[in-house]
Specification:
This protein has about 230 residues and is of the alpha/beta class. It contains five helices and seven strands, in the order ββαβαββββααα. A three-stranded parallel beta sheet has the order 3-4-5, with no helix packed on it. A two-stranded antiparallel sheet has the order 1-2.
Length: about 230
């Protein structure tokens, strides 16, 4: 779900994050569209531009979403690089947990006491990211202390080492990788995708991995964590 809104005066779209009633409407419209196409309600979500707020979290929960895969730990708050009219910066995930958590009602980035089952409320399942480090970027604020996410459309020179490190270390924590299918229509993104996935399929740990859905991944992690 994206929070794009049409501005009649400028005749262009912009990201309206500040108006919680608008973000709620976007989520509700997306849920209704999903129901109309698939004949059932969605149980998982990811917000466009990695947007999340407390109001957005509540809207997702009220719509029956059980698993959200939006948060990218270690990624700081920044302006939307391709939207100068966005009404808010993107959220700061510097303190976000790196393993799944059930959010508290007051702060979606703060875990509440973890239950033993995956069916007792809404869970946040974070995207797999690198550890934060200082790096130069081509836009404001130009130098950031930030993580990078495992997005298959981005440069394989850092995406593949991140995924490889996750595969090299035995763990039942979910490895969450981002792919927006529309990016594959861009030749550069397609080359990045093919380079990274070409390495993934050769890694020996793949024999012990399972490409699965959020509830199954979470249930597996909880079962192993309990023992």
């Amino acid at each position: 779900v994206h929070c794009w809104r049409w501005h009649e005066g400028r005749r262009e779209w912009f990201s309206d994050f500040a108006d919680s009633s608008w973000t709620t409407e976007c989520i509700s419209t997306a849920v209704q569209a999903f129901q109309g196409i698939f004949g059932r309600s969605p149980d998982a979500s990811r917000l466009g531009d990695r947007w999340m707020s407390q109001a957005t979290f509540r809207s997702l929960r009220d719509e029956g979403i059980l698993y959200d895969l939006t948060v990218e730990p270690g990624v700081p708050g920044t302006p939307v690089h391709d939207d100068p009219h966005a009404t808010e910066w993107l959220p700061d995930y510097a303190r976000a947990p790196r393993k799944p958590w059930m959010p508290s009602d007051e702060d979606f980035l703060v875990p509440r006491a973890r239950p033993r089952t995956s069916s007792s409320g809404m869970w946040m399942i974070p995207v797999t990211t690198t550890r934060p480090r200082f790096r130069i970027v081509r836009r404001f604020p130009y130098i950031v202390h930030a993580s990078r996410s495992a997005n298959l459309a981005l440069n394989s020179s850092y995406v593949w080492p991140l995924i490889r490190a996750s595969l090299d270390k035995p763990s039942d924590a979910p490895v969450v990788i981002v792919l927006r299918s529309g990016d594959l229509a861009t030749p550069r993104f397609l080359r990045n995708f093919l380079a990274t996935t070409g390495e993934i399929v050769k890694h020996p740990a793949l024999a012990y991995c399972k490409f699965t859905n959020p509830p199954d991944a979470l249930a597996r992690w909880l079962a192993v964590s309990a023992t």
